[in-house]
Amino acid sequence: MIKPSTKVYRKQIIEGFSIPAIIHNINYFFVDLDVYENGRVHCWNFEDFEHFKKDVQRGWVVLNIPDNNDISIHGLGSWTIENGSWLFNKKTFIDYVQRLIKELNPSLENIFKYKEKKVNGITVGENGGGIIYKEKKKTPNSFFSEKVNGQSINLFYKTTANFHLIKVNLFADGTLQLSRLENPIDLSIEEFEKLIIENNLVTEIPIGSTVYIYGLGEFSIKKMFYNANIQDKLLEIKDIQRQLKGEPTTIEICRQAHEKYLKNPTLENKEQLRVAYENVPDHQKIYVGDMDTKDIEVRMIIYGEQEIQNWSHYILAKEMGEELPTITVPKPIDEKNNS
DUF7638 domain: from which residue to which, for each copy (predicted)? Predict the structure, then answer.
């Protein structure tokens, strides 16, 4: 047999919907589940529909949060809730997801059946998170639409005296959409910023306020543990827009400045690192370093070696009476010469 000399592959687009739910992993985490036409559902696990049903039945995916428990919303905050009123139970939610799959795939063809994959004896997982997109025609008379990719964040949208937990979708063409609403709202970044100025888009909500989650239920706020700053979220949105356009984000700029300083530790490079770090939204500063040290090394360079005392590893070792971990950072060469 003649052996081919060129390898090829193709990517398959599998359509889906994003719907709200809750993951109960010790605490209650608000999430968006991605439901696909081949029957797969991304709920942190990503296997097949039968596995998803088991995740609902065993309480990994839940449809309500008991009163006086906390809800954690990624990138937004954490609150204790009460007066919860929810739309689904286990059976009705499974039925709902099944109907969505059938809407996407009426004949239920090519339904995925999960098989465990192992490489060198290690089970290999798969990321099932979908890519948000909108359809856009190049001209009004175009027969085909193109997909404009996007990303999203969570915010609260104020209407009269109530609040909606919305999904802000940001697209590569610079437009935005307020979704997780019965009627999504398309707007420009200027219109979006105006809603922030008018306090209609917020991260902080008063105690006692009612929060509506379209497609899931509602609850009242009993207590606030923490919440993001709305101006930081605006900076994050502008970062996402840069990323969608292929430009470096503030996190990437900070990482580059950090690397530059480590290679050439001068006062000038230290100052560039400080400016870059302080431009990163506060709730994202932990991502400028690795998963272990977070932003501690950068803070030690900028603000002094005492910053290590805020490192989780250092705090834990101190509480347990163990040897304290260390992080070595270079001081500016010219600072040493001037001392």
Answer: 6-107, 139-248
